[in-house]
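Structure first, sequence second, as always.
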């Protein structure tokens, strides 16, 4: 699914234009804990979060994520926007809750990042 289609499904707005809006996304991961994103998200997935600091962009870059959706009507800090523009990472702003955002994208066919379970000792 293209990020431009995700924008329509969520009735979201983009912060800036980028050719990366045509990037394909197969998986999404939602979290406000960047340690969970680093541990469980897949490369080239979509990040869904309500955190707005520059660490979100750095985390997405480390994992080669395809784009970021900020939920709950949140807007990233200006330094995060500047870095996202520089790195050509699409940013969408969504007024919906994280739960509703995930539900809409799942219903539209976006897959969750699989969580590999460790065996307990």
């Amino acid at each position: 699914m293209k990020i431009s289609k995700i924008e329509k499904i969520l009735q979201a707005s983009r912060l800036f234009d980028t050719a990366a809006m045509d990037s394909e996304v197969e998986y999404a991961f939602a979290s406000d804990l960047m340690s969970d994103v680093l541990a469980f998200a897949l490369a080239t997935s979509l990040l869904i979060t309500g955190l707005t600091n520059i660490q979100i962009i750095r985390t997405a870059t480390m994992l080669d994520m395809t784009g970021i959706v900020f939920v709950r009507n949140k807007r990233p800090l200006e330094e995060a926007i500047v870095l996202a523009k520089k790195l050509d990472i699409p940013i969408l702003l969504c007024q919906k809750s994280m739960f509703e955002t995930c539900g809409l994208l799942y219903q539209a066919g976006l897959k969750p990042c699989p969580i590999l379970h460790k065996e307990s000792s």
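Margin note: The mean pLDDT is 93.
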